Fold this sequence. Notes:
By secondary structure, this protein is an alpha/beta fold. The protein is built from 15 helices and 15 strands. The strands form four sheets. Strands 1, 2, 3, 4, 7, 8, 9, 10 and 11 form a nine-stranded mixed β-sheet that branches. A two-stranded antiparallel sheet has the order 5-6. Strand 7 and strand 8 form a beta hairpin. The site of one iron/sulfur cluster has 14 residues, from helix 13.
Amino acid sequence: MKNDVALIECCDYDQQKVDDAITKGFKLLGGIENFVKKGQMVALKVNLVHKAPPQDAVTTHPAVVLAVFKAIKQVGADCFVVDSAGGPYNANFMEGLYKVCGMRQLNEKYGLKINDNYDSFEMEVDGVVSKKIPVLDALVKADVIFNLCKLKTHGYTGISNAVKNMYGAIPGMTKVEFHGRFQSLETFNQNLFDIHKCFEGKLNLHISDAIVGMEGAGPTHGTPRKIGAIIMGANPASVDVVGAKIMNVNPIALPTIKVAQERGFLNENLEFNVLGEPVEKFVIKDYKSITPNGFTPFGSGLPKFLQRWVNSWANQKPVIPCKKCRGCGKCEQHCPQKAITMKTNKKGKRYAVIDTSKCIRCFCCQELCPFDVVKIKSGWFYKLRHRKDAKKQKNN
Length: 396
Ligand code: SF4
Ligand code: SF4
């Protein structure tokens, strides 16, 4: 039961259809009362990573948020929308996101509350890699948390869904510090589960908006891909396994799922019940997925210029074409390694330059560039090394 996943068909964002799908999902999971009680306050931890309109499939669609809000109201509970995006965690910055992503409109039209508590709280946690994690105070104060994620590709972790969405529980720029602290995919994913552990007992449900997902250069600059599903469950790892399968990715190849198995979220054979529709109904064979292979540094004993050269063909790397760069400096602010510096050319144009010898390949710069300038390039030896993995990762 705890690991069961409800998979419901919902072909578009027509409000009535989404309302029906969410109602059906709760029924399949034994009723909404299993997750929230009368009088409780629920934090809806949405995905507002980037200032993009709902049709871009970057953020949790407002129709899904509204459907969950209506369901919560029916049991006599209440809720509010909350997230911390890539940028400062304050009212000024977040208001732009609430407006563009359609949350402010839900507030004005339906009275759905929007978080206005911008404090953070240092949570003590008996985690695998973290003992203290600063998190959003609004999440700490809520009685219950529903994680309303979006099914997307992700340049670093391969998939952004239920597990990854809780990274936004870390306030604003502190996320940069945590990327710097956990530089490998293994430790970064362990920390994601440590974040989930901070909210044990109240992080009751994960609802993935997979009506239209994202493929290609996710999580912010990919292409919307119609899937037609909503995935709901109490175990974030089970929800991610279903999401990965829909993207035609072998879940075992995802570092998130490996860590989930180690930590007992899933058994060795990834066994759990899928209620409602069969996963096969939604699998997209040609989904443009991402292989998360992490960074294997080569040539550590070599001089820096040689390290750069070796690693440019043995790994993936972020690339900023200086002609396209708008000089906003957001990548520089969010680089955990201080590997990016802003320069000015003779004509006075600002542009960003990456020192790849410092880069840990977290791809925050690619994720957060507002103008989709940063691209991820794979070196020839990297492609050779991972040719077989890429084939294996596909289920077919
Ligand atoms: S340059 Fe980009 S990928 Fe490299 S460490 Fe900085 S933000 Fe991460
Ligand atoms: S975030 Fe994008 S546009 Fe802004 S400086 Fe960096 S690469 Fe240039």
